[in-house]
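User: Assemble these into one structure.

Assistant: Restating your components, then the assembled model:
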Amino acid sequence: MSTPTTDRRAPAVGAGPSAPTDGARRPPATHAWRGRRERLTAGAFMAPSVVLVALFLLAPFVWTVHRSFFSDTRTTPFSWFDNYALFASDPALSRSVQNTLMWVVGTVVLPFVLGLAIACMTDAGRFSRLARLCVVLPYALSGSAVAVVWNFMLTADGAVNQVLTGLNLDSLAHGWLLTWPGNTVVMILANAWQATGVAVILFLVGLQSIPPETLEAGALDGAGSWQRFRHIVLPQLRPVSIIVIGMSLVNGLKSFDLIWVLTQGGPGRATETLAVSMYNETFLELRPGAGAAIAVVLTVIVLAASWLYLRRQLDVKGV
Amino acid sequence: MTLGRVLRNGTLTVLAVLWLVPTWLLVVNALVPAGSYSGSPHWLPRDFGLFDNMSQAWDRARLGPAFGNSLLYAVVSALAAVAVATLAAFATIVMPVKRQVLWFWVIYSGTLLPLQVFIRPLFLSYAETSLYDTQIGLVLIYTAIAVPFAFFVMRNYALTLPREVVEAARMDGASWWRVFWNIHVPLSRSAMIAVFVFQFVAVWNDLMFGITLTTSRNIRPVMAALADLQGNYSNVGPPIVLAGALLVSLPTLVLFFSAQRFFISSLKMHH
């Protein structure tokens, strides 16, 4: 029987007064050795995960935090918080912050309201299942594919303008992705088109876990359907709601693919969110210090948002 | 039918139709033969040019090699992440490990950080170590990025497994490796499949690492190739771009609908 600990055990065997024998029934004198061997085995089980995460994720994170304190001039001297001060002085970054706020509101409110409404309105009937399928379907597409679809809808000779012209509303037809803040709004809608599906699924799971007896009891007590929804269903959906809000919030903050493929943050950096600004500053404007500062700010916001639903989750699981 | 029911079904129909329009246009216009596309979107299918459009996207826009690459990245990374994360979850939950909370946070913290915070250091060190623009480089980062969440799900699942079996096996003198392989893995199979499906989709859909850590057409993953195709929208024409988008979405669509059960159970486990 080969165990991953075989070679790690060797030094312990050589150094110890009594070599640990195989099996669980060993004399008490070797108790300390046994504990040590167990720890080594456990270490070997955890090592691949820990090494991968530390090397590819945590070390780059520390590097980025460190880099954010150095300016982008040629000698890169230590410059305290100068890169963070760019948030106040750089107009492209202020616009990016504005857009990020719009994204956060849009990605939290739209999937939440629509997801809850659709999950509650559909029942087990065939028509309901079909309607639900229409909404869930885009969830299986990638952000890049969603961008391709919505580019087709929104370009100058796209489907939306075609419909408007067909309805004799030519005055409303325009380049949807060209002017701020309209371009950010339509991208938030495109995002909601994709993201509502997962909210529907989560709310359905939540609805199924409500015991039908409580609803029946409410009906027997003479509660109307709105009252039952307000006082029985909604309180029981609280845990799922927190998850949906937290998840949408974090996904909205992190969203990159859709914006990148649709506009690359343009025109003139008007549709950037922090996630896109970081990429542009680092790789296109070649200002890695500014990019690092944006990444750190984004991290702080994402961590704060994650805390919203993690706190609850970790309480329950008792880590 | 009561008024409430009519209202409900009406709202539902409007929402469903609104949602269906982009999907419908995607499919219909991917069907239009590229040569006969008139310049404005079609609303009804006429001729069937889908396979021709797809093969043009596959060959001319070089989606072909990217497709193979992404299949490799998604399968290998998701498998590796599941294996590595299951080992770690077993160690932190079943084995007597000190400082469990610390190890949990060391591994789990990776999933909380936005990708932007890793990307430039990775780019620089990949360039330094000649991992840049290689398949192994992408497999490594995709595995690393998948581990924290996989670990989280496998750990939560391990918490629900009965401890008695493991304790009995240990009393009988089975080694930890044997307990892991013969008892823990068979019991965790459903969670492992769910995590695999989830991570396969995540890797398949990634764009950012694809455009940052690769440059050549026979290394880049499929979403980077699709973004490139979209960049040539006016040259290639909408039918081919849409057919390309449909083509690269097929694997995840198939997985999603054949493994919906696993998707939902992984969502449940996540929370």
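Residues 63-93 of chain B form the longest helix (31 residues).
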